[in-house]
Amino acid sequence: MARDLRMSRMLHVLIHMDRHVGRATSEQIAQMISTNAVVVRRMMAGLREREIVTSEKGHGGGWQLACPLARISLRDVYEAVGHPPLFNIGPQADPSSCLVEQAVDARLDATLAEAEARLLAQFSAITVEEVAQDFERRFAESGHSVPFQWHGVPDE
Predict the structure, then answer these.
(1) Has residue 95 been placed in a domain?
(2) Which of 57, 81, 96, 144 minimizes the number of CB atoms within 10 Å of its CB?
(3) Inter-helix orientation angle 6-16/128-142, to 10°
(4) d(Cα 102, Cα 17) in Å, to the nearest integer?
(5) Number of C-beta neighbours around residue 56 at 10 A
């Protein structure tokens, strides 16, 4: 099963919007994350519904942050992109008459539910600003001195 990249992609976009470009069109974002602008609009719509971003149509329009990254948790982004599956493992999808399989499924269900609750609690405690600060630390340590460009979109 392929990984669901919606959350990591949107975190990437939010940090670039905050640190580098301010406003970006769906087409610019699509180019950056190697997808289609329609897919971007669908993902960004969830962020807009949660009042993380705003959008403006027409010439000079695009997407921009509606609040500081310090007010956005990883859980906010996770929920905005549609609650993608957190784990690729789990119990049998169809009920089974086998008592061994029932015991396995019950234990997996309970364990995964507990792990999911803990992970979501961690997501709630981490802000996108903290991730952005980690980027800045890595950038400083890398020794890069060239002004940053967002995948072909010049800084404002």
Answers:
(1) no
(2) 57
(3) 70
(4) 48
(5) 11
